[in-house]
Specification:
This protein has 301 residues and is of the alpha/beta class. The chain is 47% helix and 11% strand. The longest helix is centred in the last third of the chain and has 15 residues. The radius of gyration is 28 Å and the shape is elongated. The N terminus is likely disordered.
Length: 301
Amino acid sequence: MAKKILKKRQALGKGLSALLSDSPSSNNREETNDSPSLGSISEIALSVIEVNPFQPRKEFDRESLQELADSISTQGVIQPITVRQLETGRYQLISGERRLQAARIANLETLPAYIRTANDQQMLEMALIENIQREDLNSIEIALSYQRLVTECNLKQEELGKRVGKNRTTVNNYMRLLKLPPEIQKGLQEKKIDMGHARPLVNLENIEQQLYIYQRIVNEKLSVREVEKLVKQLSNKQEPTPKTVDSNIPTHEITRLQADLSTHFGTKIKVNTLGKEKGEIKIPFHSVSELNRILDIIKNE
């Protein structure tokens, strides 16, 4: 059945498929009506295309997919997907998940596809590299994809750089971000800080110092240059962190104060000393009603 729905198209280029090695004999053989040649572009029925089980991207924006589907309905599929043929005669997607989903939304019956040979590791590698080339990835998502390529595809950083078109230093800078505490990584993902802010923090070995500067970046909107200066000061022990300050308030007094405030407000209060005469009091709340209760206590003082 699958053989009847294949129609040869003129090749448009290799793209990511350059990572895959087609057999020379299959590239040179003549095209027949019964079987498409490897490396060619053929029209394949959507009904015989299976998704890529190694696809690292799980969530797709529905609005963006609909826009792509509308474009496909008007202009057709400009960039073919890439597939491999299974022993069953069906096809498995290597790259082009968004195009495949959008084509289904657009109610297409067939889709242009490169046919390639690929083992499971190559399937994973292709899917990860295509994912990295998306424009909307944050730096942590890129770093995690690089890490998977190194660990699961057994690529060295230099080889990985060649695969993704980046030099080794760039790849290393991304992967080093994974050494940061989860809170800072989450901040990168939520775009509270950018990679320029995060890179200097990796040079600090003390997690408390990293989190201290991270909070200052978020609260004070520090520039990258200010962060680099602050990291240098901490490295030279010119700037105290919350745990290294020389406070005039005895530790037992802080503990007693925290206990008294926690009892008064009915929630666990945190008191931090930031200098000899500086500090902050954190009053957490877990719901709007709890916030209103705390505010009522403050107002009635």
